[in-house]
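Q: I have 435 residues here and want to know how they pack in 3D. Can you give me a structure?
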Amino acid sequence: MAGTATAWSNWAGNQHSVATAILRPTTVEDIAEAVLDVAGAGERIRVVGSGHSFTPIALSDGRRMELSALRTEVRVDRDARLVTVPAGTTLRALNALLAGHGLAMPNLGDIDAQTIAGAISTGTHGTGAAYGCLSTFVEALTLVTGTGEVLRCSAGEHPEIFAAARVGLGALGVLVEVTLRCVDAFTLRAHERPAPLDEVLGDLTGLVGRHDHVEFYWFPYTDRVQLKTNDRVPADDRPLPRWRGWLDDELLANTVFAGACRLGRAVPPLVPTISAVSARALTERTYTGRSDTVFCTPRRVRFVEMEYGIPRAALPQALAELRRIVDRLPFKVLFPVEVRFTAADDIWLSHGYGRDSAYLAVHQYVGMPYEPYFRAFEEVAAGLGGRPHWGKLHYRDAASLATAYPRFGDFQDLRARLDPGRVLTNPHLDHILGA
């Protein structure tokens, strides 16, 4: 079960750790045994997935556990539209599995490389006013707690743990199996077009209400956005030509954009011009496709990111403040700002707990300064009642987060019960949850 290569870094390359040992369990019993062994040795353990979090949430100075070799039974109940998979399954593999059974996830984000455990534990989300984060699709889960106990949790079995563990930050136990509530496979029609920012904000309520999924990207130093809407349609009658997909998603969005970022990093005064050209380079297009192929796009240009969920009504104010922040920075911002929308949910540490949300994600190209930018944006977002995405960079601590989440104290109490010896922690978790 143990490996030898102990150095690890995340996708963005901004987080690194060296573990004392690597554990690659193949059964749930292996995991329970490992947790008890670590507890007995006075060490700690963290589980890692695909490394798509930007925070130190997965770092371990003790033992590191990887779930890629875990073999729990895959179960598909086509009639009930339920699928049960190992928690270390990637979203990409899950989408392929579901498609083979005529099923699909109701909603997805734009990256499919994450493991299911990592995605739901950090509150990963897509966009759509009627949809919460991916954790809202979890029907049941199996957890190995910090005492080695194996718990099957759902709305009817250990409901309190279920309400917390769907966005559990890996602090309540090791997720080993997840049952997801799916829908019949469906086709999306995507419409992408450039637009003035004021036009989009002026019709925001209508846009969010008319379309199944809405997001837009604001290009710094301009008044332009790229608006994207996705809607369910009965037929895949307008597939994207292969050459157009390569041109837009590979050449322009990855190869050319990477070159523009490198140029902007080398010659910062050119960044406003680069941003203006980028805002005009992405032209209008409409196409249809299988839902997951429309939701998810390749991301090969490396960046760091902060994202905040705020009350939806606060979005215009947050964007206005953000534009002023960008203009005042002593350095340039190379990446667009992404805006998405989600529905309220009842998961204790979900960013959408109890309210409809708008999400603003700020990015910076690797190798460029970002902390003053992110800190200034965080001050604005926190002042509007914002909640930081658990997998994206932020600078909050347990005391400040306790005021943002009504059930924060309940989560802390549950953590103390399920992991009394703090076997499943690291310095980052102690900072954001309390030691």
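Q: Anything worth noting?
A: The longest strand covers residues 187-196. The chain has a mean pLDDT of 95.
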